[in-house]
Every structure is written in C-alpha cells, then in structure tokens.
Design brief:
CATH class of the largest domain: Mainly Alpha
Largest sheet: none
Radius of gyration: 24 Å
Number of domains: 2
Distance between the termini: 51 Å
Number of strands: 0
Oligomer: single chain
CATH superfamily of the largest domain: PSPTO4464-like domains
Shape: elongated
Structural class: mainly alpha
Number of helices: 8
Strand content: under 5%
CATH architecture of the largest domain: Orthogonal Bundle
Length: about 160
C-alpha cells in the first residue's frame, strides 16, 4: 500500500481539494484570515486574489494558491478554516435567534413573561420598557433606538446563558 504510486485521478482530486481550500481562505473576512497562521507567500497570494475582480485572472490566482498549498501542511489550515466557518455559523444562528425573539416580543408583549421563565436572570422591568418603547417608535415612525437596544439586551441575555 505505502509503496503504490498515486493515480493521476487521485492527484487531480488532491490538487482540486487544495485549490478549494485556498478559495475558502479567499472567502474569509479579514479578521478570520488574520487568525489563521499561513506562510507569508500564501497569505500574500490570498490577499491578491481578494483584490482581483476579473473572472479569469481570479481563476488563475486560485490555481496559484492551490500550487502554493501543495508545499505546506494543509491539515492545520483546513482545521482553522473549519473552525472559523463554524464560529461564523454559530454567530449567524445566534443573530437569527435574537431577531426571532425580538420579533416575538414585539408581536406579543405578553411573551416577556415566557422569556423571563426561560431566562430567570433577565431584567423583566427593562425588557418590558424596551418592548413598549420599541412599539411606540414603530407607531410614531421614529428612529429605532429602543428596537436596537432591545436587540442588544436580548443578545447579551442569550450569550450569558
């Protein structure tokens, strides 16, 4: 097994996988990319690919990134990319949960009682005041200050638990 040559198809799949990994690096935000340890040449190539807008030029740059990826250990980079994407998905899920909760509170102000049962450490008086103020803002067509403050209060409440 160990001495068997790798088929051309397997090599192509490996190269395509490394190129896809490079494309994943290009798609990351600046913050996420900064947390991943990369060789300088590879980081420069990824930054250059972000700058390129022409389709064919970007495709060639991604091929170049794939070529650079062949000379580095891809396992830790893949693990770091997966962790960054998982963190991003978790943030998105928390955001959606917070928005859903806020809309439920605004649709049914009695839902604050249910929320307090679910999160006993929550400040019920403040939440009720924010819900009333947000509803008042909507009816008066005013800027959504309390609407945003309600979101922030719910986000903190969810993060604590």
């Amino acid at each position: 097994m160990a001495g068997e040559p790798v088929s051309k198809t397997q090599r192509k799949k490996q190269v395509a996988g490394l190129q896809d990994l490079g494309a994943g690096l290009v798609a990351l935000s600046e913050d996420q990319l900064a947390r991943i340890e990369l060789p300088e040449r590879l980081r420069d190539a990824v930054m250059e690919a972000r700058r390129i807008t022409a389709f064919e030029a970007k495709r060639r740059q991604l091929q170049y990134i794939g070529k650079l990826m062949r000379s580095v250990e891809a396992g830790p980079i893949r693990a770091a990319l997966d962790a960054a994407l998982a963190r991003s998905r978790g943030d998105t899920a928390a955001h959606k949960r917070t928005e859903t909760l806020r809309e439920r509170l605004l649709a049914d102000p009695e839902a604050v009682g249910e929320l307090l049962a679910e999160y006993p450490g929550a400040d019920g008086r403040r939440l009720r005041a924010l819900v009333r103020a947000a509803l008042h803002e909507r009816t008066e067509n005013r800027p959504p200050r309390s609407y945003r403050a309600l979101y922030q209060a719910l986000r903190i409440l969810i993060e604590k638990s």
